[in-house]
Amino acid sequence: MADCVFPTRTARFGLAQHRPEDLLRSQCMGIGYGEDLLVCAALGVDMADCVFPTRTARFGLALTFDGHVNLRLSKYSEDYNVIDLDCPCPTCDNGNENGKGLTRSYLHLLASRETVGAHAVTLHNIAYQHRLMKGAREAILEDRFPKYLKTFFKRFYHDGSNYPSWAVDALRSVGVDILEDQPGVIPRANSDPQWDPAA
Questions:
Q1: pLDDT in tens, 44-78
Q2: How far apart are CA 157 and CA 170, in angstroms?
Q3: What b/e readout covers 46-70, taking b as 16+ CB neighbours within 10 angstroms?
Q4: What CATH number should be reported for the domain holding residue 12?
Q5: Do the beta carbons of residue 56 and residue 63 sit within 8 Å?
Q6: What is the CB neighbour count within 10 angstroms for residue 184?
Q7: CB–CB of 194/68 below 8 Å?
């Protein structure tokens, strides 16, 4: 996955700009939430490593651009969609076009009961993070990273009311206001993650 390492242009968003161009800026260990990864990238982090996508998969939690999906919840027992219709992973199989992807209903049966369920969700979660960071890298190269951040946060926090204040403040510190198009939104002070908020 070498194509996910950020180009040195990332540094213009953070403090790492004072290091020589040919050196890796920084690596963050233990950063796995999508919003954390993107904020760290904006602050100049070039690489991150975390068990989050695999550990949460063991408990039936799937990561998506629309928020986390807790497959153990009963509401997924009759949901015959794949985790993410746009995901190219083997679990989703690009939206279940050929009937080969695993449905949320099937994964609900397997989640936290069978190791194969954890394996399937792990494949999806890693693919999600790869897509997230590949998109960030492309946005940086194309000088549209602030827009990428705004789009991600608006989609991930559906109604806008759950934007974490730490993320808003950190991004503002590097000149990116993810709330500039949403004047009435007040970020939440609580930084607890949102686990399937539609539950």
A1: 888 888 899 999 999 999 999 999 999 999 999 99
A2: 17
A3: bbbebebbbebbbebbbbbbebbbb
A4: 3.20.20.105
A5: yes
A6: 7
A7: yes
Residue 38: which residues within 8 A CB-CB, separation 6 or more? 132, 136, 148, 149, 152
The token pair that represents 170 in the structure block: 């950190």
**Residues 119-148: tens digit of each pLDDT:** 999 999 999 999 999 999 999 999 999 999
Number of independent structural domains in the chain: 1
Structure tokens at 176: 């990116």
- Helix %, strand %, coil % for the chain, to 5? 45, 10, 45
Residue range 94-123: mean pLDDT, rounded: 84
CA distance 70 to 172: 31
CB atoms within 10 A of CB 27: 12
CB within 8 A of 117, min separation 6: which ones?
Answer: 60, 71, 107, 109, 110, 111
